[in-house]
Design goal:
- This is Glycosyltransferase family 1 protein.
- There is one protein chain.
- By secondary structure, this protein is of the alpha/beta class.
- It folds into 2 domains: about 5-180 and about 365-384, Rossmann fold (3-Layer(aba) Sandwich); about 190-365, 3-Layer(aba) Sandwich (Rossmann fold), CATH 3.40.50.
- The chain has 16 helices and 12 strands.
- Strand 8, helix 9 and strand 9 form a beta-alpha-beta unit.
- Helix 5 (about 120-125) packs antiparallel against helix 6 and helix 8 (about 190-200) crosses helix 11.
- The radius of gyration is 21 Å and the shape is globular.
- About 45% of the residues are buried.
Length: about 375
């Protein structure tokens, strides 16, 4: 198959990003939007409402509501998947989430399959406190799906190692295709002062943004504790925590107990349309993850908006940031290291990368049309 030929794909996702945010869902929705530009036809199935089909012109269908009981979701995923496969219109199936691919795994013998590995689902659940039995069941589901893949796409070398080590996937089947960025959307042309005024943020305070789901592995506890140290050197520091999650109340108590109410603001869930403005409003963004960070789309979003980003040396985060500016990769994810790096950049002891340099790096290497072309190349390999 040549680049001039159309490649017809069935794309099996998780939830639809327009209804439930998250890194996997964002990558899935953006990839489906840009693959046609690489001459890849897409048809998608996700857990979602009837509004998914309405909003995508029927390109993506919700087979069952995301909050429906699990047995119903699995049954409806099987019915919808088999219905699509029986049409015989697809050259290839692309799986983005093992749970909703498992119901049709028996039918994948007849259609070449590529697995998009967005992270170790079972391991992530274990880190967040799920029972070991539940994690083992999830891992078994993943293995059953992954063994069907003719090629497996990972977002980072860190996740390639996870896939080979944890799931015993042959290394020669794994291909690296990073996540992408919509460089036009993440390009707020307002000045930093204008964006802060629009958001109601303090105009003249050194401001750091953390866009994170508020769960334990994201390192937000360490960021809060580090703020106490930074405040000694940067008295007006303001940390903006964007996102929600199960430990949101616990983090609020931590902020209050430390007397940091005037230095850390919990924004809650920030609407997707407002994210570019939020990135642009910050002097610096930070990703203090403690475990299992496969790629970190938010790093690209921040850079595309012209805002430097500081990351912990976890998972795929250093792979994205180190080629741009190694100073922006923390030595470790500890409270003291976070505090020292923030203090150094915010006091000017270390000069932040320029806004223009941030954006140029993101656009050149990670614009979605570039990523879509690389994805098609892997799909073509799977058809040989």
């Amino acid at each position: 198959m040549t680049n001039g030929e159309s490649l017809r794909t069935l794309q099996l996702g998780n939830d639809w990003f327009g209804e439930r945010q998250g890194g996997l869902n964002r990558v899935y929705s953006e990839l489906l939007r840009h693959l046609p530009g690489a001459n890849v036809e897409v048809r998608g199935l996700v857990a979602g409402s009837p509004g998914v089909a309405a909003s995508t012109g029927g390109v993506v269908t919700g087979f069952a509501p995301a909050k429906a009981p699990l047995p119903k979701r699995l049954w409806e995923a099987r019915k919808a998947g088999l219905h699509e496969l029986k049409s015989g219109h697809f050259d290839l199936v692309a799986s983005h989430f093992a749970l909703y691919t498992l119901p049709i795994v028996d039918a994948l013998k007849r259609t070449p399959t590529v697995i998009h590995f967005h992270g170790p689902w079972a391991a992530e659940a274990g880190v967040e406190g799920q029972s070991s039995l539940g994690s083992r069941v999830q891992a078994a589901m993943e293995r059953a799906v992954y063994q069907r893949g003719r090629r497996l796409i990972v977002l980072s070398e860190a996740f390639a190692h996870e896939l080979v080590r944890r799931y015993r996937v042959p290394e020669n089947l794994v291909r690296l295709v990073p996540g992408g960025i919509d460089s036009d959307r993440f390009h707020d042309r307002l000045t930093r002062a204008e964006t802060r005024e629009r958001l109601g943020w303090p105009i003249d305070r050194p401001t750091v943004l953390a866009v994170r789901r508020q769960v334990r592995r994201m390192g937000l506890e360490n960021l809060i504790d580090a703020t106490l140290q930074v405040r000694k050197h940067v008295p007006e520091i303001m940390i903006m925590l964007a996102g929600s999650g199960p430990i949101m109340g616990e983090l609020r108590e931590r902020i209050t107990s430390a007397g940091l109410e005037n230095h850390i603001r919990q924004l809650g869930r920030v609407e997707d349309a407002d994210l570019p403005t939020a990135y642009r409003a910050a002097d610096l963004s930070i990703v203090p993850t403690q475990a299992l960070e496969g790629f970190g789309m938010i790093t690209l979003e921040s850079l595309a908006c012209g805002t430097p980003v500081l990351v912990s040396p976890v998972g795929g985060l250093p792979e994205v940031i180190r080629p741009f500016d190694p100073r922006c990769v923390l030595a470790d994810a500890s409270t003291n290291t976070i505090a020292e790096s923030l203090t150094s950049f915010l006091t000017g002891a270390e000069k932040l990368p320029s806004s223009d340099a941030c954006r140029a790096y993101a656009v050149k290497n990670f614009d979605w049309p570039v990523i879509a072309a690389k994805t098609r190349a892997v799909y073509e390999e799977a058809l040989v």
